[in-house]
Amino acid sequence: MSSQVNRRIVLIARPHGNPKASDFQVVEGPIPVPGEGEVLVRNKLLSLDPFNRILMGNANSDQAPIELGNMMFGFTVGVIEHSNNTAFTVGDHVSGFLGTLGWQDYAVSDGSDIRIVDPQAVPLATYLGVLGVTGLTAWVGLSKVLNPKPGGTLVVTAAAGAVGSVAAQIGKLRGYRVVGIAGGPDKTRYLVESLGLDAAVDYKAENFAVKLAAATPEGIDTLYDNVGASLFPTLLPLINTGAQIVIGGVMSQITMTETSEGPDHLPDILRAIMYKNLTVRGFNVTEFYDLYPEFLAELTPAVAGGTVISTTHSIEGLENIPVIFPDMFTGRNPGKMVAKID
Ligand SMILES: NC(=O)c1ccc[n+]([C@@H]2O[C@H](COP(=O)([O-])OP(=O)(O)OC[C@H]3O[C@@H](n4cnc5c(N)ncnc54)[C@H](OP(=O)(O)O)[C@@H]3O)[C@@H](O)[C@H]2O)c1
Fold first, then answer.
1. Is the Cβ atom of 331 under 6 angstroms away from ligand 1?
2. Per-residue confidence at 149, pLDDT binned at 50, 70, 90?
3. Were both Cys, which of 13, 101, 274, 306 would link to 107 (CB 3.0–4.6 Å)?
4. How far apart are CA 97 and CA 94, in angstroms?
5. Cα 92 to averaged position of ligand 1 atoms, centre (Å)
6. Residue 38 gets which letter from DSSP?
């Protein structure tokens, strides 16, 4: 074992708006001891997700928050340090795919919330990003939630982010003309030059609406939206009759403490749904976990062959998570945000 203590990040305050380092505390305790049928996992990588902000409470969400004083939920990749379970051997690498292993150094598992992963096949962080729940979310949205017809224009919002960058690349695999929306010139350049998108538009730049219209001359046939209220009114006039819309996330609303802000666009949105004959659907990826093998069968060869690339924004040290995590809400991270903790 690399240490004699188990550090855990617990929630000590509920943020209003963006999270702050002072909302968290790092506490130390003994390393847990696995019982019969259990294993001890030493976490190596922790996933940092917008869902962590939702679980902190005061988010624009129906999700029940974590109790103050409790450990933060989090997807993980780690290694088995001790095994009382015949399905796992010391040294096996595992992903904590239900998030129950959490933001801590060590966790005990009965095996139901971990699955073995191959550290030789792809970098370990890939199991939190493209080949983890992040990638599954993108794939589900474009494969199972709606039944969009490939060939038209797909627009992806927060396209340089963890889910968005995978959704955009899956869109290219499926034959769409893909246009990404992201904040800042570095991200739009990355979308076109690294991910091979057909166009990318910076929503923070002047004349965003005009530039988006120029980038979608045939309108929008499919929208994979990760952002919600802040961009939707600008997208709406460009959406074609019969378009399909996946609401995969509402990033711009997660830090809202009121139920609505700004002008009321609801009449415009409902009119468009009615007269443009739109299909709009949200989803929760947890309802699609049983499709993980089908998702892996399609995405693993694409990742191994380099047609879908994995971008990781890696930080070092569990103790730095409280300081770095808030960056997710100012858009500093391209791709998947991961903390390396050993
Ligand atoms: N449906 C599900 O089951 C499910 C599962 C996983 C994730 N999600 C959702 O999917 C979305 C993306 O998650 P992710 O893990 O891929 O996060 P992410 O995109 O890697 O990180 C968030 C990004 O969103 C953008 N953003 C932040 N605040 C914004 C704002 N006010 N307006 C516009 N863009 C903003 C930023 O990029 P820019 O620099 O481009 O602004 C930031 O980098 C989130 O809303 C998350 O809750 C849903």
1. yes
2. confident
3. 101
4. 9
5. 32
6. -
Q: Which of 197, 208, 258 is nearest to 231 (CA)?
A: 208
Confidence band of 259 (pLDDT split at 50, 70, 90): low
What sign results for the dihedral spanned by CA atoms 276, 176, 141, 247? negative
Q: Where are the alpha helices (DSSP H) in 141-277?
A: 162-173, 185-193, 208-215, 232-235, 251-254, 266-275
Q: What is the mean pLDDT of residues 25-45?
A: 97
Q: Domains of the chain (ranges plus CATH)?
A: 5-129+310-340 (3.90.180.10), 133-285 (3.40.50.720)
List residues bridging with 180 in a β-sheet. Answer: 156, 200
Q: Are strands 24-30 and 5-11 parallel, antiparallel or unpaired?
A: antiparallel
Instruction: Please report how the helices 162-173 and 292-304 are oriented relative to each other, as an axis angle in degrees rounded to 10.
Output: 80
CA of 38 to the centre of ligand 1 (A): 35
Instruction: Encode pLDDT of 303-326 as tens digits.
Output: 999 999 989 999 999 999 999 999
Decide whether any atom of ligand 1 lies within 6 Å of the 187 Cβ. yes
Which pair of structure tokens corresponds to residue 91? 């040294």
328 within ligand 1 shell (Cβ under 6 A): yes
- Cβ neighbour number for residue 57 with a 10 Å cutoff: 20
Percent of the chain at pLDDT exceeding 70: 98
CA–chain centroid gap for 262, Å, is: 26
Instruction: Note the maximum CA span of the chain.
Output: 64
Q: Does residue 247 surpass a pLDDT of 70? A: yes
The CA 86 to ligand 1 mean position distance, Å, reads: 39
CA distance 172 to 186: 20
Alpha-helical regions (H) of the chain: 50-55, 133-140, 162-173, 185-193, 208-215, 232-235, 251-254, 266-275, 292-304, 321-324
Residue 228 near ligand 1, beta carbon < 6 Å: no
